Amino acid sequence: MAALFAGRLLVANREEEELETERELSRALDNKVLLLYFGSGQCPRCRRFAPLLRDFFLRLTDEFYVERASQLGLVYVSRDETEQQQRAFLRTMPRRWLALPFGDDFKRELELRFSVSEVPAVVVLKPSGEVIVGDAVEEIRRRGPSCFQGWREAAELIDRNFRLAEDFDERSRRSFTDPLRRLKYKLDKKKEAKGQAEEEEEEGEAS
What we know:
Organism: Ceyx cyanopectus
Strand content: 5-15%
Oligomer: single chain
Radius of gyration: 25 Å
Domain Thioredoxin: 1-188
Protein name: NXNL1 protein
Largest sheet: 7 strands, mixed
GO biological process, one term: photoreceptor cell maintenance
GO cellular component, one term: mitochondrion
CATH superfamily of the largest domain: Glutaredoxin
Structural class: alpha/beta
């Protein structure tokens, strides 16, 4: 899926980071079902739909809801009138969303390629770039996160039976050492108790 944006720039939501290298794009998009969300923070229909899409995405990718994030990515293709409007909208959306930079001409090419004439529209793509659903807005409204399983099967994703290093946050990395720290603590306590017992025994013999 990174091939769709080869040579292009994507912006990480609410960050100054710009994903432009092949490695960054591959890590963010490859082996995932990709949603292209065409919308605007000012469009009344989009304002009604955006909270549903936000909840849909979070319930599939946020650790509060799931133990492991689903293989799902989203790129926001904006019809906002100003860059400030685009930023304001994205600040209310999940951090894992990516966005086409405001004013990028590639937006028009994507609209033509996927026959997007009205917003909101959500195009669902396989990792290969093939279309799974031309516009999933109504499906997301009706079925919510349950529709992802059908998309996942259609996309024939390679199941991840382990989590990559970048999937772990600081807390998860620390958790690897927790059992070792607990074991060391128990051993130290045993040594301390044994030493104290020996001291008491020596004092008893001396008296």
